[in-house]
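Narrative summary of target 7.
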Amino acid sequence: MNRILINYNEDLEIPSWADSVEPFLQKVLKELQFDGQEVSLLFCKDPYIQQLNKQYRNIDAPTDVLSFENDDVYEDEEGKWKCVGDIVISLDTLPVNSEYFEVDINSEFKRLLVHGILHLNGMDHGEEHIEKGVAPECEMLILQEQLLEKLKDEIIIK
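Modeled conformation, tokenized:
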């Protein structure tokens, strides 16, 4: 079992699909055979993620997803947990990406979630990014696309 903590930046209303995020992430973590992980997820708008991007990556622009690895371990009454870190997703950038990649919002949202999970578990894609019409070459992005194919029928955002 894994623990998913979901938060929304103060300027966001909780979306109608909010309850569908955790079950999807649980399936992703199960597919990856990860157990005992605690993942924190924050949804925000572009100004907030731009501030984080500037502060931590020296890039003064919004982005779609940021991951901050942690790797702390703690124990509570439910067991031992590895806090793998935090994922931040801009809901403003989500429809922009969806349009660019010519996919529905649900598919793009799942891509951002999987991408964040893989980063939290030590994977990196270097300078390579998913590009429209180009097959990925690095291990992380290949695994990402394989996971998304396995979970293609999962619906988060209707």
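The CA atoms of residues 10 and 44 lie 8 Å apart.
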